[in-house]
Write a structure and sequence with these properties.
alpha+beta, 4-stranded antiparallel β-sheet, 28% helix, globular
């Protein structure tokens, strides 16, 4: 599943598939290096071990596919120090 995190102030892409997976696309300004990607991935995986996380340091975009609520995924990113823009 894919989830993209977002803040209510920010543009977000949301897709629900037939098996209730969600895909969230978030802009994460602090995403600067591979270590940042590792931290973001570990944070998401701490909530949903079956999630899929894709991140790009050039575009600062994080795409997450998950069954968990968007708010929960967003909160774990904030707690990890990578708040969505």
């Amino acid at each position: 599943m894919t989830i993209v995190f977002f803040n209510a102030k920010y543009e977000v892409s949301f897709v629900a598939s037939q098996n209730n997976n969600m895909t969230l696309n978030l802009k994460v300004p602090k995403l600067a290096c591979s270590a940042c990607i590792d931290r973001v991935t570990k944070a998401v995986m701490s909530v949903d071990s079956s999630a899929t996380v894709e991140a790009n340091t050039k575009t600062k975009m994080v795409n997450v596919r998950t069954l968990y609520p968007e708010a929960q995924i967003k909160q774990v990113l904030v707690s990890a120090g990578y708040p969505p823009a």
